[in-house]
């Protein structure tokens, strides 16, 4: 028996496996025009989902169309745009031919490494008083719209976020204290080293020598000016007449 089971082929390699749960329940979707109208509605729903990436509709149709959209994206990722049966399937389910390019060039690169379902289905409030049927929102994951589910991890008042903020503040204080200690120790080493003392003393001596030389030059210039003044006074005393 074990030998027989080991030789069973892997079905996942032959057929794409849906990543959503399929409920074993009868779907109450009857149309006046019969199965043809039902298939037409499903094609319109899949086309709208690929085009808008988020649609709002009744829950039974969204639940069934979700499976076809999942399978369509899975086949596109599996075979690519060069596989003729896949291209025929895509052309059948997408009423707008421009969406074929979006499927292979936008959605396939987005979901090629995805490990979960490609779509999300949420129950929406009833549209009272227009209808009493269950409403829902069907969307593609990674769409550019704001998320419908509140992400509680970003609430700053949650206890784990409060603890993380305090831990960040404490870590920042420790880092700042370490930086201050390193700077103070380096300054102390610079002031205590003999090379720095010698350097500062040499700088002081050179500055004093410059001051002395400047003072000597000023003194010399002042003596020269005094000698010139005396000589001019003597010459003037000889030439100027004496007035009685």
Automatic annotation (TrEMBL):
SUPFAM superfamilies: Prokaryotic ribosomal protein L17
GO BP terms, alphabetized: translation
Keywords from the UniProt entry: Ribonucleoprotein, Ribosomal protein
Ranges where the record places region Disordered: 183-203
Record keyword Ribosomal protein present: yes
Stored Pfam families: Ribosomal_L17
Gene Ontology MF terms: structural constituent of ribosome
GO cellular component entries: mitochondrial large ribosomal subunit
Family according to the record: Belongs to the bacterial ribosomal protein bL17 family.
Identification of the protein by name: Large ribosomal subunit protein bL17m
């Amino acid at each position: 028996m074990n030998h027989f089971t080991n030789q069973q082929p892997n079905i996942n390699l032959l057929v794409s496996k849906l990543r959503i749960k399929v409920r074993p329940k009868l779907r109450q979707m009857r149309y006046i025009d019969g199965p043809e109208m039902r298939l037409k509605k499903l094609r319109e729903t899949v086309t709208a989902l690929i085009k808008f990436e988020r649609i709002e509709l009744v829950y039974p149709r969204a639940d069934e169309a979700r499976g076809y959209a999942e399978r369509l994206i899975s086949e596109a990722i599996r075979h690519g745009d060069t596989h003729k049966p896949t291209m025929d399937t895509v052309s059948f389910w997408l009423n707008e031919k421009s969406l074929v390019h979006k499927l292979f060039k936008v959605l396939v690169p987005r979901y090629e490494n995805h490990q979960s379902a490609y779509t999300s289905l949420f129950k929406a409030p009833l549209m009272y008083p227009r209808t009493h049927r269950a409403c829902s929102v069907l969307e593609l994951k990674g769409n550019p719209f704001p998320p419908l589910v509140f992400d509680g991890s970003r609430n700053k008042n949650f206890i784990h976020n409060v603890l993380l903020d305090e831990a960040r503040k404490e870590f920042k204080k420790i880092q700042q204290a370490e930086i201050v200690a390193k700077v103070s120790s380096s300054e102390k080493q610079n002031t205590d080293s003999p090379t720095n003392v010698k350097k500062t003393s040499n700088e002081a001596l050179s500055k004093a020598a410059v001051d002395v030389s400047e003072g000597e030059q000023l003194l010399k210039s002042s003596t020269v000016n005094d000698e010139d003044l005396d000589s001019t006074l003597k010459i003037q005393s000889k030439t100027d007449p004496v007035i009685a």
